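Action item from last week, closing it out:
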Amino acid sequence: MYFRFEKLEIWQEARKFSSQIYLITKKFPSNEQFGLTSQLRRAVVSIALNIAEGSDKKSDKDFTRFLKIAIGSLEEVVTALYISKDQEYLSEKDFNDFYEQSHKLCAKINALIRTLSSGR
């Protein structure tokens, strides 16, 4: 591994989460390709991208800023998941599984933010 972000558990989990979202959105109606499907995919990809970009910043403060942006993208994903469930593109079980994964990933990102903020 050559890049700092590749070693981060939160980046690895965000990457796996992205793959799962891509798989489930393949089942969405084709008329959502440029709407909800695209928005959900862009938001989930943004999580891993911001973690990666922030990891190379020269200060913990800068890295923290990118981690907070990643959380914003994660919250966008959760909102899109709610809308997907409301439109019956997601089953209750799939929604609950994604919601739980989102919550766990958010908690881990917040834990890293706390660590960076404490100067450790």
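Closing note: Residues 55 and 110 are 15 Å apart (CA to CA).
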